Amino acid sequence: MRLLLVEDDVMIGAGVRAGLRQDGYVVDWVHDGVAAEAALDTEQGYALVLLDLGLPRKDGLALLESLRRRRNRVPVLVITARDAVNDRVRGLDLGADDYLVKPFELHELAARIRAVLRRHAGRAEPLVEFGEFRLDPSARKVFYQGRAVSVSGREFSLLQALLDRPGQTLSRAQLEERLYGWGEEIASNAVEVHVHNLRRKLGERAIRTVRGFGYVIGEAEAACRSGASSS
Ligand code: CA
What we know:
Helix content is about 40%, strand content about 20%.
């Protein structure tokens, strides 16, 4: 899963990015509000934004306000200073999903991210269950047809993206956006390779190809199914 980290403090930013990478997230890091806005305008693949409020060029609250005014629904987790109660309240009222007070522990940040993502996907329960799949995002484990299956970090992210909205077909480009960050080399067939490897581990039918559209888990919704056959 791909996150946007907006933080001007180099020490905090580097620590957070390293910690989240270890948890399997892809992290793009910008250091001011204008760069954050540009990233959010051009990239569709972010699962969540981690937003510091005190930022150069455009502060976090102004960024959040303009984001929500433009109907951008990406989940936002605000990071604030201990004494900034009013900013936290204002952030929540402007459309932030949760906040965390500095200094914080990385495992608390990771748990809050999972909680926000869960709510955003409309789930209350910690496991992602659909059909024969069961995903445990905190342990990054996959179970299929009752057995544990060992997958790579990107394979896990790919499954997570498809299981987030079962029945919704995601194109190769949409999957690439969710799996890779800035500056990462992506082979032109990277997504196909991940899908191929997952089918090898899970069985051919686990992930369906919707010809001309992309990939889906479960029954493709009608809009994507017309005129397309699956394999
Ligand atoms: Ca700051």
